[in-house]
Design brief:
single chain, mainly alpha, 4 helices, 0% strand
């Protein structure tokens, strides 16, 4: 039964990762086409270019999440040492912090273009990313201290 659940889980992760990857490629393609049309048309502005760049950066973050899930959940063995688990968790949290920061940057640029009263939302995203990063540092410190005591 355990083997069946593992196979089913690997299949689900693989399908999910493939979907994330394909959606990201679709978004990147749409952004590149948008850049081409903006540059060749009369509607080119630096803000439109920044929007397309933000889409590409966001898509790369999604590809990173997809890659992480495929490597950590499908390709690696289930039995991990605490150090390997901590490293995997650290990679995942860094990906999330990066995505939150990039999204905060995109929303900040949008707010600066349109309505400054919406600037509070990217500030909250930056604060969330900062708290998550500080929390990761505390987790790393406590976990490393614990590993040293157990050795």
């Amino acid at each position: 039964m355990d083997k069946f659940i593992r196979i089913l889980s690997n299949f689900a992760y693989s399908v999910g990762c493939a979907c994330l990857y394909l959606i990201s490629l679709w978004i990147i393609t749409a952004a590149i086409v948008g850049i081409f049309w903006d540059i060749t048309g009369d509607a080119f502005t630096i803000y439109k270019l920044l929007d397309d760049v933000a889409l590409i950066v966001f898509s790369i973050a999604v590809i990173d999440v997809s890659k992480y899930l495929m490597i950590e959940e499908v390709l690696k063995d289930n039995e991990r040492s605490p150090t390997e688990a901590r490293r995997a968790f650290t990679k995942f949290v860094i990906i999330i912090v990066t995505a939150l920061s990039l999204e905060g940057l995109v929303i900040a640029i949008e707010s600066l273009k349109t309505d400054l009263s919406n600037l509070i939302y990217p500030i909250f995203l930056f604060l969330t990313a900062t708290v998550l990063l500080v929390g990761l540092g505390v987790y790393q410190k406590l976990n490393a201290s614990s590993e040293k005591k157990n050795q």
